[in-house]
């Protein structure tokens, strides 16, 4: 490959400077256009978000916070970050917002840094039970620097066991309790979490990485009044910039800010912060609320269809349905391993996640769970009619263990997608 050099290179498009890489990105665009995306953590970032995130702000160094930078010439990025902060505070009715975390994981690390000392006890939600590793696991910052323990869901109904949370809080006296999930289909009782934390003098951190968009739209219980701090991603149900954010009470603001910078991160990413500002503005609109309503209805429609088709698929919808943008399917009654089922879905153009479930009978590393999200498809324009068709497709695909119908099922996937072009303004 020959890369052009000299001054002129700065004004050339990617396709001319690096055709090899441009071709790879083009491949990913074609994949997105032709994949029925049921990955619950993914969405479709709007063009405005992509433009902000790919803007000239990429060049700017701005260590610190608006009005207090280690660099001069920050007047424009100060205004941009202030806008993102004000929009986040207004969207979630929060006293303070920090929009600098590079990701949801960094937000969790910073909150632990802000609220406790190394060695303090931290209570999190077990990964196989639907939580996130950054809440407690030994392979992450949380478990490496804190005395962590984790709670989970009850065997009989697969709902989070609040009595276990209370009992473990009494026993371990945590400084921080995490509430929030990656793989769970129901609402949480934030009031009960608050009571448990108050009883032992713990901070409550709600990790709304997945459901922040639903909260913003007013379609999910609001954790902000109960939590000392909330962490989130901006790219899952919020559907925008790639990164994290933290909300907290005013009296914790300076500790949280100092933990993000210089505690855990270097200079902020002004281009991503600008894209977060766009995301928060969009999330305050009626159009976004309608999309989140369609997301919830879509997840319920797929769940209802799979419950109705249980006789022929053998697959069980965990907790019998969903209150959020995703559903969990237990394939153990069907006697199928989730990785094998996911490979079959992939072959017909559907993406999703396979995982281990709580009390999973499969031998690790295998699992019996499929996580199916409605977020990306609702962002693409799918509504209940299409989601019902997706539910039928899933049932047919789960039943078809020998790929006898894969050509027909692939054609149905492409037919559904053809009605909803993706990034039509982009060539290729
Ligand atoms: C996705 C997720 C995160 C991490 O977000 P990244 O941006 O991938 O680091 C943290 N917590 C929960 C509950 C998540 O689902």
Question: Any chance you could write out the topology, listing elements then pairs?
Answer:
Layout: H1 14-17, H2 19-33, E1 36-37, H3 47-53, E2 64-65, E3 68-69, H4 75-92, E4 96-98, H5 104-115, E5 121-125, H6 141-145, E6 147-151, H7 162-172, E7 176-179, H8 190-200, E8 203-207, H9 212-216, E9 229-233, E10 244-248, H10 253-264, H11 270-283, H12 286-308, H13 310-313, E11 316-317, E12 326-330, H14 338-347, E13 350-351, E14 353-355, E15 369-373, H15 375-380, H16 384-399, H17 406-418
The chain binds pyridoxal-5'-phosphate.
Strand content: 5-15%
Q: How many strands, which pairing sense, and closed or not: the largest β-sheet?
A: 7 strands, mixed
Distance between the termini: 22 Å
- Level of helix content? 40-55%
In which order are the strands of the major sheet placed?
4-10-9-8-7-5-6
Unreliable runs: none
Bound molecules: pyridoxal-5'-phosphate
Query: How many whole angstroms does the radius of gyration measure?
Result: 22 Å
Total number of helices: 17
Kindly name the structural category.
alpha/beta
Number of strands: 15
Mean pLDDT: 96
Descriptive account of the structure:
The chain is α/β, with parallel strands linked by helices and 428 residues long. The protein is 43% helix and 13% strand. It is globular, with a radius of gyration of 22 Å. The relative contact order is 0.14. Bound molecules: pyridoxal-5'-phosphate. Pyridoxal-5'-phosphate is lined by residues 41, 103-105, 108, 132, 134, 180-182, 207, 209-210, 233, 244.
